[in-house]
Amino acid sequence: MGISNIEKLKETRDVEGLAKILENHDTTYDVCFSVIDALKQIGDKSAIEAIIKARLDGFNSIRGRLNFIDLMELSVSDAACRALWESTEQPIEPLGQILKDNKDENVRYIAAEELERIGDARAAQCLAQALNDESDTVRLAVVRALERIGDPVAGVALIQALNDVNKNIRHIAADALRKIGDARAVEPLTQALNDVDKGVRKSAEKALKNIQKRKELAKGSSK
Q1: Element holding 211 (H helix, E strand)
Q2: Domain-located, residue 208
Q3: Range of the domain at 83
Q4: What's the Cα-to-Cα distance from 204 to each of 7, 79, 82, 89, 106, rounded to whole Å?
Q5: Are 177 and 169 in contact (CB under 8 A)?
Q6: Most CB contacts within 10 A, which of 45, 158, 205, 214?
Q7: Do residues 95 and 70 make contact, with C-beta atoms less than 8 angstroms apart?
Q8: For residue 22, which of 70, 77, 88 has the smallest C-alpha distance?
Q9: What is the pLDDT along the chain (223 residues), one digit of tens a residue?
Q10: Is 134 strand, coil or helix?
């Protein structure tokens, strides 16, 4: 597969054709990079999904080897990762769509992880909706992304996460609210002081202390 053929596939926005090239284990290193770049330039949901799949396939192939790491696969997988967040136009909308409706838990996890890397407040709403994801792993990535964003919408979502069934998610949500210092979280954090998990209770206590400290500092500076 030559570069000219890749250009034709890019011009016709043939995401399926480009993705098939990446799936071929005989594809050379340079060609893989060109395909990933073409997908990045297309930039819609299906193209971003193809990049994520290339990343996952690369790592899964490596995990499947006991005593040998295929450096070409590792590099291509790493390139697929970088392609998502080192471009000028960040693919926030397609990543949000993937997080919402892709059936593969691993793909949704990567989408949330990349939204965390980007750290743009525009992603807060789609991340908040993903707190209802059936996967604990995905929800955990979502909470971490919300912590990174620190937007008012993120604060509301993190308050919601204090009621998650997973104690690790509740713990991270409480710790994130400590860092953000969102005063709206005082009542929910106070309730979290009675959480069944000791770690969550400690995080809630620290968060409340930090919010109170911020209030006192704000009062002092206004005098």
Answers
A1: helix 198-222
A2: no
A3: 1-89
A4: 53, 39, 35, 37, 30
A5: no
A6: 158
A7: no
A8: 77
A9: 567 888 899 999 999 999 888 887 777 777 888 888 888 888 888 888 888 887 777 544 433 332 333 434 444 455 555 555 455 456 788 889 999 999 999 999 989 988 898 888 889 999 999 999 999 999 999 999 999 998 888 999 999 999 999 999 999 999 999 999 889 999 999 999 999 999 999 999 999 999 999 888 877 766 5
A10: coil
CA dihedral 75, 76, 82, 84 (to 10 degrees): -170
| N- to C-terminal Cα separation, the chain | 70
Residue 65 is which amino acid?
A: R
The vertex-53 CA angle with 19 and 77, nearest 5°, equals 95
Instruction: List phi, psi (to 5°) of 91.
Output: -80, 55
Q: How many CB atoms lie within 10 A of CB 60?
A: 12
Tokens of 110: 């990567």
Rg (alpha carbons) of the chain, rounded to whole number: 21
Domain membership of residue 161 (yes or no) is no
Look up tokens 């400590």; give the residue. Answer: 178
Is 5 part of any domain?
yes
The number of distinct structural domains making up the chain is 1
Q: Cβ atoms within 10 A of the Cβ of 181, count?
A: 18
